[in-house]
Amino acid sequence: MVKKGTILEDRNGNTFEFMEVSSETNGNHTKIKVCLQPNQLALACHCHEKSDEIYEILEGELTYEINHKKMLAKAGETIILPKAQAHRHYNDSAKPVVMYYTITPSYDIEPLIETMITMWQNGKIRNGNANFLQSMVWVNYMESKIYFEGLSQKTQNVLAHILAPIASVFGYKKFYHN
């Protein structure tokens, strides 16, 4: 379980320092200082059902996409990736990107980030994607659902309702901890 001051690092040297956590903001937001190393792919295109993401770029340039429109945010800029909009972000440059990442409201983003880093470290996320059964567990059991590109939200909800309990029998969990 992460708390204020926790620093997580994935196997590519990207770091995530928890500056403010939901327990101290009454769930209003979580703020993380992120350093993405050069040429790093982030999570596959997805949308958050109930939360907005705010990125304040401190150093470097962040490439991001909203509804498949590619854009660039430079140091000193702040961008908002609104809930229910398909998006992703990554470092497409030769220099690190340092930024504050704030998600509001928090819901269960902290254990999800810890889980994703743990899965990346263990080789269970490739090219920004967890496997399909893991994704269905997240869709079914997370408080603030994350939907992935390729299938409608309605279809993902139906599949998640059927497949997540089966995935659980095979050892899939909503969250994994370091």
Overview of the structural elements:
This protein has 178 residues and is of the alpha+beta class. It is 22% helix and 35% strand. The chain contains three helices and 13 strands. The strands form four sheets. Strands 1-2-3-10-5-8 form a six-stranded antiparallel β-sheet, with helices on one face. Helix 2 packs across helix 3. The longest helix is centred in the C-terminal third of the chain and has 17 residues. The protein is globular, with a radius of gyration of 16 Å. The N and C termini lie close together (8 Å). This is Cupin domain-containing protein. Pfam families: Cupin_2. InterPro entries: Cupin_2, QDO-like, RmlC-like_jellyroll, RmlC_Cupin_sf.
Blueprint of the fold:
Layout: E1 7-9, E2 15-20, E3 30-36, E4 46-48, E5 52-59, E6 61-66, E7 69-74, E8 78-81, E9 87-90, E10 97-104, H1 109-121, E11 125-126, E12 129-130, H2 132-141, E13 146-148, H3 153-169
Antiparallel strand pairs: 1-2, 2-3, 3-10, 4-13, 5-8, 5-10, 6-7, 6-9, 11-12
Helix pairs in contact: 2-3
Give the key terms.
178 residues; alpha+beta; six-stranded antiparallel β-sheet; three-stranded antiparallel β-sheet; 13 strands; 22% helix; globular; Cupin domain-containing protein
N- to C-terminal distance: 8 Å
The proportion of strand residues reads 25-35%
Question: What is the C-alpha radius of gyration, as a whole number of Å?
Answer: 16 Å
| Fraction of helical residues | 10-25%
